[in-house]
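Researcher: We're teaching a course module on how sequence relates to structure. For the next exercise, students receive a sequence and then see the predicted structure as tokens, so they can try to spot secondary structure elements on their own. Here is the exercise chain.
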Amino acid sequence: MKLSLSQRAARMVQSEIRVMSIECEKIKGINLAQGVCDTEVPEAVRVGAKQAIDGGINSYTRSDGLKEIRDAIAGKMARFNGIQCDPETEVIVNSGSTGSFYAACLALLNPGDEVILFEPYYGYHLNTLIAVEAVPVFVTLQAPEWKFSPEDLDHALTSRTRGIMINSPANPSGKIFTRQELDWIAAFAQKHDLFVFTDEIYEYFIYEGRHISPATLPGMWERTITMSGYSKTFSITGWRIGYTIAHRKWIQAMSYFNDLVYVCAPAPLQIGVAQGIRELPERFYTNIAEEYVHKRDLLCSTLKEIGLTPSVPKGAYYVLAGASALPGATAKEKSMYLLRETGVASVAGSAFYHGSGGENLVRFCFAKTDAELSEACRRLRALRFQSEQHLDASPAR
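Model: And here is the predicted structure for the students to work with:
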């Protein structure tokens, strides 16, 4: 038999975010494509990790993480999310929230199981489902408010439906799922006995409304897999410290797969994050939203000024903008034009849709220092388009 890649590998493609980051690096541009936080790491987090290294905490940990960080996460879940969880039996420390989702999918989904995925989606959610041979079924959120209806869920349901994936606040749209929408999802999940996977990595980046963890809704604790982490909150995207919160009857299997794929999250970095959770005051977290809303407003006003009408995000730190004014037949061509002309990298909207819905969209990230974001906006203002453009995210059906 001739050597070849697996069928699974043949279905995978390199992340468009990675592609644009590489292209940006080639010209030493400003990377508004990838969600890499360029803001400062909190001192408590840095010092905690350094002290752990110097103190000899450099070996394997339990597959579910060190007690210090599991205790800290459980305390945070109670205070901020309103979720009571046992740090010994209902918490896993993962290699990022992407690692959390992968371990959860390996433990809870069978090949051919269907998972409802809202689009625009985060590409790693899609590719993780493909990697475990699950089948994504898309529910398209309607711009500019990124809404859906209970009927949309009903239309997506089949006999193979096993779960629903939520990302709130959402990458790339900045949508925050409302209490009414979460109630719809909860009722749907309970009626049809489904898992709800919820990625809450941007839970502190809230500009309008409030964050609600689906696991707090009546009847949802047993079927909700809550995933989050500190890559964004502490500006440590390279540390890969995430976590999973779930009912104890699911957690052990997820821990097995976490061990198989990752062994454990880096030990000294677990200590650094634990120290940050324990020591940073509440004001640190409220400052995040206050700081980032100014970044959001600067970028959105710039995009509007040059004719790339933004969908103003309510959370996270990305902006989807209409790109009809840009030259090019596809979103990829439009984003490459921007990079060539301004040295500012964005991501083609097509990276977040399974069909052609994103071909007139581009995504920008504003998780940058004020100086770098201001320079990116200065460069973008060099492009001015005369015709009034409107956000167009209507997918091909």
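Model: If you want an answer key for the exercise: The two ends are 40 Å apart (CA to CA). The longest strand covers residues 161-167.
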